[in-house]
Structures are given as structure tokens and as C-alpha cells.
Amino acid sequence: MVAQASSRFGDRRNGERRIVDDARFPRPPILRPDAPVKLSLADRWSIALQSSRLMAAVFSIVAAVGIVLVFLLVTPRYQAILQLSAPQSASVFYGQTSSARDQLPILQSELLAKHVVGQLGARRMFPNLDARGERGRIAALSAFRRALDARLSRTGDAVELRFRSHDARIAALALDRLISAYAAYQRETGGLVDDAPLMAQRRALDERMALADDAMRAFLSAHKVSDYRAELDSAAALADALAHDVAVGKAELAEIEARLQSAQSAADRLGLTADLTARTKKVAALQREMTAATQRANRLRVLSPEYERLRFARDTVLAAAAQLSAKDEDVRAGDSVRLAGVAAFRPASAPLVTRIERYRLPLAIGGALMLASMSAVAVGLARSLRKGVLPTPAAAERHLGLPVLVVVPRAAR
Amino acid sequence: MIQLRTKETPPRANDFARELAGLTKRLMQRDFDDEPGRIVLLVGAAPKVGCSTMARALALLAARQAKRGVWLLDLDFWTNGQAASFAAASDSVGALSPPRDGVLNGQAFWRLASQTGETAPRLLTYSQVGERPLFVSRFASERLASSDDIQIQPTSSYWVQARAMADLIIVDSPCFTASRAGLALSSQADLSLVVVSPDLPLASDALVTRDEIQARGGRVAGLLFNRAQNGAQTRRVA
Asked: If you compute the radius of gyration of chain A from its CA atoms, what whole number of angstroms results?
């Protein structure tokens, strides 16, 4: 046999290189090209360490992203959802139309913000803020607005409120207070009070009152009386006074006549006669006045039944109005305010994670580092699963059944 | 004039000196001064495992102890990386001497497939590296036509003469997936060493290399583990 093997070196300019002796020299059947490499965990770890740079990169990236994500995940966000229905269901009593969108400026208003910050305290809500003085107050209000997220729901018929705070309880309290202040505002302004049933009663009373007033005015006008009761009393009093004066005058006239009969001299009789004449005229005038007053009083007394009927009817309407007004106030001041169009009202819930709040940052860092470590190890071990790698001399010896005569470290050169 | 390439890493005298000292000592050990030299086949289990670098380092170390000389036979006939590497490092290892014909008394282990008569002269040459007793081969592939086939044959008479002239003949063979030239000489080698590295998925290739050498009557003495992770136990031949 001349040649057991040959190599052909063809034209390398086109990159071709061929082995031509395969047919004459077939591979023996003992070859095991796909024999699996059995590696221990230590071997796999050795392979993983070969990818130390990749593992470090994975660790860094996952740790950085993980810290941010985990911190965001463990940061509580508390929200209250105020459901406001469509404008069609808004109040008709005041002739207003209000929608969920209309509530946004109210909920974000400085008025409500002041109320909430004032109730909870700026320092309590924003401990990192210097809340002293006017500038501090403005800063607190600004911080409140930043922390408050009021937006329309996806369907557009509801307002969703979210409040971010370092303290979950503060977040929940802030939202609850905000909603309370919002409800109080609506009560005071009547913006959304739903008192349609009271309004119907009020309208009926108003109509009855108008009728009663009209009847009374017509009655007084017809009898030329402005104030019936006062005029009646004054007329009766005047008649009584004039009657007393007439009686006194008549007694004086009788006394003068007696003195005239017993008078001796002509001069005395002349004087008494003149006095008697004058007093007689005066008494006659008083009698005429008394008669007129008595007649006036009698005429008014005749009108008394009709007047009392009209007055009773009006007083009845007034009493009903007073009763309705009291009921209205009860409704407005009640705890369970029924806001027109509010389909559901869910207060912010109390936080359940207060115990781990103080460990939030360490938890985030620890969790991210753990996640990053696991990712890095996973990447390294995944690379160790590459088929056919002989990571260590011991693995090579086991796999090939040959002794390792020389081990050259990577850094030897 | 011979044009040498410089793709291979230039040799340094102390490369792998500590790691290869035991193996070198064992390979150079002689009971008698006129004992025939040994032939060692170094083959990589896969490309880029550092086989040529280790062969070069082994040759440099062995040359320190050699009396007759150390031959470094590069079977990568097209690249001639070993010769190119020594030429590039001529400042440190010395210049290459003028080439000597590798045909020994009309015997050669190569031939052109189209050749029918005598072996073509000066296709394979050896050059001495500086003043060292180290001779590195170079194949004049530029003299080949594009259609020429080179056949490697285990000519025993050639190797008998070579053993008499050298203390150690290191055959640097490309991995078998690239060239199967080394297989033809595996039966003539006293021992074969397979170079492996943890960087590459070469377990299957290493098995193939081992089995093919053994199938041709060669003896695989062991593995040279290159680029081991720090902390891996450095083993020396006892």
C-alpha cells in the first residue's frame, strides 16, 4: 500500500480545501461522535465560571432593572374610585348638568387640597417638605397636587382617584378626606343634591300659598282694609273711648244745668248758659264720632268670619312650608348624602402592608440582588449545557479515558 | 526567497516551561546516547485549541536537552505556521538557516499523487532555528499546481533514518476535521498526544481523534489540557 492517507491542497485562492481520502479511509465503527459528556455539578460550575463576564453583565443588568422594578412593585399605591354617572342623570332641581369630567376641576381644586392638607397636616403628609410659613403651605399644596391623580375612567363616566404617598395610611386617609370634602362641597353648593321629591312638595305649597295670598289680598282690597286685625281693634278702642267721653260730657252738662237753676244773679246765669251751650255742642260732636267709630267696628266685626277663614288657610300653608323646610334641612345635613348621579363610592382601603413598609428598600435591593444572582447563575449554567464541552481536566479524563499529562492554565502565557 | 507568514504566535523560550518540563524530560530521557529518537504526534481535538503553540513550546524546551537535534514537522503544509512563527521571532530565537531538503537518501513520507518516479526534491525542507538544535519544517506548497494531490505515506525507512538523526521529532498535525494528514503518520509515532481546551465544544471531536488514531495502530498516551481555568490542578508527567 503506497498511501494510507492523502491530503489534497487545491486552489486556496477561492478558499477551497478538500480532504480526498475519506472513501479510501472510512471512519471506523468505534467512533462515537455524539457521545454525551457526563459532567458533575462542579464541572458545570467550572464551565459557568468561564462565562464570568457574561454572568457579571447579566447580574448588573438584572440587579439594576430588578431594583427599580421590585421597588415599584413593593411601593404601595392607594386609590379611591368615585363613580359618576353620565350627564343625563344629573340634578334637575337647580337646572345644572354635570358629568364626571366636570368633577375633575373640583376634585383637583385648591379648595379641596387646602381642606385635606389642613385636616391631615402638611408635615404628616409630606415629612420631607419644609411646611413652615406661607411658602411651605404652597409647597404642600403643590405636593398634594402632584401626589393626586384624578382622571376619567376608560368608559368616561367615572372619576378615578389615586394618591401616592410614602405612607399607605396617609394615602388612604388623604383620599377619604378628599372625598368627604368633595361631598361637603357639593352639599353646600347643592350642586348634586337629589331632592326632587321635596321639590314637588315645595312647588305644591308654593301654589297653595299663592292662592291664599291672592284671596287675602282680594278680601282686604274689597273692604278697603290694609290690616284687618289692627283696624278692628283700633276702631273698637276708639268707640269705647268716645263713649266714655260722651258720658263724662253729659254728666258735666247736668251739673251745669243744676247750677244754672240755682243761680241768683243775672251775670251768673248768663255765664252758665254760654258754658252749657258750648259743652252741649262738644258732647254732640263726641256722640257723632262715637257713632261713626262704633259703626266702623261693627262693620269690621261682620267681616271677621271670612277673614279668619282666609287667615287659617294661609297659616296652614305656612305651617306645611315650615315642615317641608325642616325636612329639606335634614336631608342636606344628613350623613348619607345622596349625590345625584353617584352610582358607587368606594373609599380608599386601609393598607395591609404596613409592617413591611419600613423594610421596603432593603427588600427591594435584596430581592433584586437575589434575582440577579439567580439569573447570572442560570445563564452560566445554561452555557454549561452546551454540548460537548470538557470544562476540567478531570472531566476530560473521565470522558476520553485518557490521562491528562499537562494542564496549562489560562494565564500561563 | 521563502516568504513566511506570521499568523502564528511568535515563540518564547519560557512558554509553558513549567507545565511542559515534566513531559519534556520524559520524552528526552535516554538509556543510551545512540538510542533512536522518538516521534510524538500532537494533534488538536478541534481547531484553535492551541496545538501548534504547545508543539512549538515543547520543541523549544526539548531543544535545550537535545544532542542530535529536535525536529518540528508541521503538517499544515499550506500555512507553514511553525516556520513562519520562528521567522517572525528571529530576534529572540535566531534566524532560520537556509533550508535543507527533507528527502532522506531518496526516501520521503510524502509524494505527489501524479508523481510516478522519484520524490520531488526540496518540496519539504528543514531549517535550523538560530544556533539551537531545533529544525522546523516548511512545505513549498507554492510549487504545487492547483490540481496536485499530496499523499502522506508512513514510509518506515524514512522514519528510521529520521530517528537516527534526531532525538525528538514532534509532528504538529492539524486537527482531523481540517486535515487527515496526521492520521497517516500516527502509526509511525511512538505516542500521540491530543490537545484539548475547555473553551470549545470538542468532546465528540476528541473521541473521534482518539479512536481514529487507535484504529490506525497509533497509541494515544494522553491529553494536553490547554487554557484551564485558574485553580485547575496542574499535572506533570511523573
From this structure: 54
Distance, first Cα to last Cα, chain B: 45
ipTM higher than 0.90?
no
The torsion angle over the Cα atoms of residues A102, A104, A110 and A115, rounded to 10 degrees, is 100
Tell me if the pTM is above 0.90: no
Cβ contacts (< 8 Å) between A396 and chain B: which residues?
196, 206, 223, 225
Q: Which of B141, B196, B215 sits opposite A396 (nearest CB)?
A: B196
Chain A residues whose beta carbon lies within 8 Å of the beta carbon of residue B60: none
DSSP B66: -
B21 touches chain A (CB under 8 A): no
Task: Using only the alpha carbons of chain B, give its radius of gyration.
Answer: 17
Alpha-carbon distance of B42 to B54, in angstroms, equals 9
Residue B183 contacts A, CB cutoff 8 Å = yes
Amino acid at A102: D
pLDDT in single tens digits along all 238 residues of chain B? 333 444 556 666 566 777 888 889 888 888 777 789 999 999 998 888 889 999 999 999 999 999 899 999 999 888 899 999 999 988 888 899 999 999 888 888 887 777 665 666 788 999 999 999 999 999 988 887 777 777 888 788 899 999 999 999 999 999 888 888 888 888 889 999 999 988 776 777 888 899 889 988 899 999 998 887 665 554 444 3
The length of chain B is 238
Whole-number pLDDT of residue A409: 81
* φ and ψ at residue A121, rounded to 5 degrees: 90, 130
Cα B188–B193–B197 angle (5° rounding)? 150
Could you tell me the CA-to-CA distances from A394 to A39, A108, A397, B202, B225 in Å, in that order? 10, 72, 5, 15, 10
Q: Please report the residues numbered 51 through 70 in chain B whose beta carbons come closer than 8 angstroms to any beta carbon of chain A.
A: 53-54
First to last CA, chain A: 44
A162: helix, strand or coil? strand
Looking at residue B104, the DSSP 8-state letter turns out to be B
Nearest-neighbour CA in chain A from B23: distance (Å):
7
Pairwise CB contact (< 8 Å): A33 & B20: no
Taking an 8 Å cut-off on Cβ atoms, the answer to whether A406 and B148 are in contact is no
Q: Is B111 on the interface with A (CB under 8 A)?
A: yes
Residue at B72: amino acid letter: L
pLDDT of A75 > 50? The answer is yes
- Among B147, B150, B211, select the one facing A31 at the smallest CB separation: B211
Q: How far apart, in whole angstroms, are the C-alpha atoms of residue A185 and residue B11? A: 91
